[in-house]
Structure formats: C-alpha cells, structure tokens
Fold:
Amino acid sequence: MKNLRTSTGPFSERPYYKDHEIEDICTDALREVALLPTEPRPVRIDRFIEKRFGIVPSYENLPEGILGLTRFTKDGVKDVVVANALDADSSVSAQRRIRTTLAHEAGHCLLHTHLFVLATPPKSLFGDFTEPTKPKILCRDEPGSARYSGQWWEFQANTAMGYLLMPRALVDKVVDEFLVPVGNLGGKRIDPLRHAAALLALSETFDVNRIVAQIRLDALFPKSEGGQLML
Structure:
C-alpha cells in the first residue's frame, strides 16, 4: 500500500491499494479470527466485526439513503452502525443488504482506520463535513445503485466487501461447474447459457443480492473484447 495525493475527501493523501493487497488483507483478517470458511457458505460477517474489532454492530435511525456508517476515534473503530430501516424490513433482499452493509463498513475498518488514528486534528466526515469533532464514514448505497457515488474510499470498501463476503477460493469452487474452456491456452469462461445460473448459485451460496454477485463475478471473470467472460 502507498499513499497518493488527492483533492477529494478530507485528507490530503489517500491510501492506494492494489486488488491483491485488499484481497490479502481481507483473507488474512478472516483467517486470523477463524471465520474463513473451508467450503462455500455465507461468511459470518457480523461475528467477524465483533471478533476483529471488538465491537457489536448496532442499529440507528439514519437519514434516507444512508445504509450504514462507521465512527472512529483516535484509538480506532468506535461503532459500526446499520440503518434501522434495513433491520425493520424482513425481506431476503433487505437482510442481504444488511450483510453487504456490514461487510462494506468492515472494509472501511480494515483499510481506513489509520487515516483517523493518525490525523491531527481529527478530520471531518466522509460525506458530511458539518461535524468535525465526530469523524465517521457515511455509506450511501450498494454498488450498482443509482445513488452509489464511487468515491475512492467507497470503491475501496466495496472491493473489500466482495473479498470478505465471497473469498476467491470459495467462489472458484461454486462457479467451477459453470466454466467452459476457451482458446488453446487453457483459458476458461462462464458458459453464456448458464451465466444466470452461476449468478443464482453465488447469490444463494453466499447470501448476497444478485447485483453483488454480478459485480464479484465480473471482477473475477472480466469480459474480453469479444464480450465473453474470461479467466
């Protein structure tokens, strides 16, 4: 990880992580607290936050469009909060959004806590600069939604979210049956005729919404110039 100068957000520099660095951070963090599954199944993300950061996620009434937030102090992570509106919704989609929100906040905790610990004086909010004495990161929506803004801190947290909820080795096991060979160099791609089935398998196995599974699958099997998903 290295730092880059930036004009966005409250800090003059931002951390730059390569994808494999974020993956290693997330995988190691899950393994350190014995919550990295050995076989494909939902990651216990709420338990991960409890064991890794020593806090129990809480629920609060948050402004419309805010799914969650993380509060920081000079000592590190203070609170991880999810919107009451999500908790009150018993639908499968809403309960899965709680999981992705928790994983997103956990991504901030893993990747961005040091920014607040080292900052002097305490920095103002990501997304809301009106309370400089109460540093926190506000998270507005899942990636793929119309309100997802894609700032660097949100992009990094969403990348971590994917690695926390759907570790690469486990995803590979789920999608293996949907792969077909392509080319003469041992490449593989998702069978276009079974792409929807692969998405459903990921969504059900890891207990995430389809859009999250889609983004993860596209990241691991990016489209080639011919529009095919490749490995």
The radius of gyration is 18 Å. Residues 2-165 form one domain. The longest helix spans residues 92-118. Confidence is low (pLDDT under 50) at residues 121-136, 144-148, 225-231.
